[in-house]
Amino acid sequence: LGPAGGLLLSLAGAVLPPPALPSLLPALAVLGCNAQPTYRWKDAVTNEKLTCQQCPPGTFVAQHCTRARQTLCQPCPDLHYTQYWNYLEKCRYCNVICGEKQVEVQQCNSTHNRVCQCQEGYYSEMEFCIRHSECPPGSGVEKPGTPFENTQCRPCPRGFFSSSNSSTKPCQPHQDCEQQGKVTNVQGNQYHDTLCTSCRLGGTNSTQAPGDDDCEQAMIDFVAYQNIPIRKLKRLQQILERSPRKQALGTRAAVQEKFRTFLTQLKEGHYEVTKELLDALRAAKLHSIEEKVRERFLLD
Ligand SMILES: *[C@@H]1O[C@H](CO)[C@@H](O)[C@H](O)[C@H]1NC(C)=O
Ligand SMILES: *[C@@H]1O[C@H](CO)[C@@H](O)[C@H](O)[C@H]1NC(C)=O
Ligand SMILES: *[C@@H]1O[C@H](CO)[C@@H](O)[C@H](O)[C@H]1NC(C)=O
């Protein structure tokens, strides 16, 4: 099959009349919609020009028509196909091969080439399958990725947060502490949830003595999410660590999370976190925050 065959094949496909426009195309209507497509063929022996019938999809021309008989069509062999009415002398080979990160979504059969698609979690770009992007903390998934399109993210709007890298999770709404019969300890932002506590903060009727686990955690959360500059926050952690390590760089949200995890571990190691933290705040010259903590948690 030369390039001419391919051209003729696509022309044959284009000749199918659009059924919605019969009044605009009276000439085609006269030709008849039910007529089988034909092609012109010059008989090799007589040199006579004949009009042959084409072969339907799934078959090919085994023998061209002669003056005496119609075109002889035969089914395509295995792994070969013809998609349209045609007068090809050979079926086309199913030449699409599914690559790595692809799955076969349509098998090769006598009328269709094989069709591949990117596997779950990947989308196609310039013939490659690329993993769906994750939305970073502070933004959530607006539209999950498909085999054809990457994940679409959007920054979390007011009242919502996302604390993880995720290609599936949308922004989550902040929790409502009052609804749970608790009080708001830390207001949420786009990176973290609102944090609630049962520790009675700043009230004169303090039923739980500061030092209770819940109150200690509340104090840790309160300090970790204060608007402390990153450098000060790192200094604070260095003071609290016995053998200060070099601090990795990161966003404020990431440094805050690390600091909070660090303090929580200190607490679980049965440290006197409350006292240590107040001392460290003072050493780091974060006096206004030390003051806020004392006031809020009724510490003298
Ligand atoms: C070949 O596969 C296509 C797509 O899956 C389907 O529409 C068609 O009916 C199949 N043809 C045959 C002959 O099985
Ligand atoms: C998100 O991914 C970035 C880059 O891979 C990484 O540095 C960061 O620690 C991750 N954050 C979280 C919360 O997993
Ligand atoms: C504080 O507690 C006392 C007794 O425990 C009670 O009489 C008082 O009404 C409480 N005050 C407030 C503001 O809840």
From TrEMBL:
Disulfide bonds listed in the record: 76-91, 98-116
GO cellular component: extracellular region
Domain of life assignment: Eukaryota
InterPro entries: TNFR/NGFR_Cys_rich_reg, TNFRSF6B_N, TNFRSF_decoy_receptor
Positions of TNFR-Cys repeats: 75-116
A single GO BP: apoptotic process
Keyword field contains Cytoplasm: no
SUPFAM superfamilies in alphabetical order: TNF receptor-like
Location in the cell: Secreted
Residues making up the signal peptide according to the UniProt record: 1-35
Keywords: Apoptosis, Disulfide bond, Glycoprotein, Repeat, Secreted, Signal
Domain TNFR-Cys: 75-116
Name used for this protein in its record: TNFR-Cys domain-containing protein
Gene, per the UniProt record: TNFRSF6B
